[in-house]
Specification:
There is one protein chain. Helix 3 runs antiparallel to helix 4 and helix 4 packs antiparallel against helix 5. The termini are far apart. The chain is mainly α.
Length: 192
């Protein structure tokens, strides 16, 4: 059941499965078209369905199975966690393994896709990094990061010393005096 006062809202598993079939089946159609284009013999435009149409079917079945099973698992468990994509990934991978008609392929592809989907979901579910808070402005977020990680200039100077672009207050006077003592050269002061 739901924990920490969070209430789980059930989702329509059939609608999610249908969306998965159409979306991933469309991707399978594109891949089938690419496969048809790259064949050595000209089989015509209908070769997308007749010659390489199995690709469309496998992709559509995998997408529908994944979406349906992961949504149904979430509905049954009333939790939205990493286990739902894991179960959905296992069943979708098993559908891909059915193409080879051996039980090791079914279990292997199923467990492989289950591990892949679990890792993907566990690490944030995005290929572009962790999702930030959508309510916070990007400028405000970066300013907050700068405030949290900014070190006082005196601490930096104490650790690294002056020079190399690090200048403490009064640096120009100390530099002018140092050059005059070591080399006997008078450095004119900068007029600001």
């Amino acid at each position: 059941m739901a924990t920490d006062g969070d209430t789980y809202v059930a989702k329509d598993a059939v609608a999610a499965g249908t969306t998965g079939v159409l979306t991933v089946g469309g991707a399978g159609l594109v891949i089938s078209a690419i496969q048809n284009t790259l064949t050595k013999q000209n089989v015509g435009a209908w070769g997308i369905f007749t010659r390489t149409g199995g690709t469309i079917a496998v992709f559509a079945a995998m997408g529908g199975t994944y979406e349906f099973v992961s949504t149904a698992s979430a509905n049954l468990r009333e939790k939205n966690d990493t286990w739902n994509p894991t179960v959905g990934g296992f069943f979708a991978g098993s559908v891909m393994g059915l193409k080879f008609r051996t039980m090791p392929a079914v279990l292997g592809y199923g467990s492989g896709l289950a591990v892949l989907m679990a890792a993907y979901h566990y690490t944030g579910g995005s290929l572009r990094g962790y999702k930030q808070d959508p309510t916070m402005d990007e400028f405000e977020r970066k300013e907050e990061l700068r405030r949290n990680r900014r070190r006082p200039i005196q601490e930096t100077i104490d650790e690294l010393g002056e020079g190399r672009g690090i200048k403490a207050p009064g640096y120009d006077e100390r530099r002018r005096e140092r050059i005059r003592q070591r080399y006997g050269i008078e450095v004119p002061s900068k007029s600001t």
